[in-house]
Amino acid sequence: MKLYNLYQDLILEQIKSELLRLNEAMSDIDVDTILAGDKERQGKFYKVNITYDNDGEVSNRFIEIYQRNTSIIGNPLIDAYQLSKNNQSSGPKLNKKGQPVLDKDGNPVIVSYEGWRKFNMKKITSFKVTGVGYYEPQAGFNPVGNNSPTVASTTTIADIPSYGYKSPTAKNLDVKSKWQDIKQDKINNPKLEPTIKSPAIGPEPKQPEPQPVQPQVQPKPQPKQNNKTELPPDEEEDLTNNL
Hints:
alpha+beta
């Protein structure tokens, strides 16, 4: 009986642990709420701390979330800019087994942890929205969706109505212009309002072009006929054409 109770306690503890893990995981609603920004503070966005379990390698990531996507195999993704990993901006490059990658001299390869990343939401075991805010995206932000070949579709994009880059490039300015046009279309109405047409007014009568003056030719006198009225040459020509 004691052994049964022990197994029962272990099973209940495991179920409780799994439920707690599910409650801490990041959901679609959580991501969309973060992407909506803080409307009361002029669209302020907040950076997020997440715990990420990448096939057994558990680490803490400090990120800015910009999009929610779906991969080509159906996994829920977030498109984010990673600022640090385990509170470090750089560190050793790791292989799939979590082991450091070495260079030809046997030294660990050091890589930057900062940059754009795609995170599988199923592997995010916990998250916390911090009080650290930002108002503009990182360089390279694509406001019309993630164009990565591994991304099938973009569901939600950070609601950033306007922004500016500290060191803008031609590409950034072009993307910004397109994004502002898209936002303006959403603000107005995707369906064009019917325009009221004014009453049609016909074109102004075309003035006849001046014709060159032809020298007048005096008609030859016609002999008078009995009981008939003599017609001018033009009318006589018209009557002939009607025969």
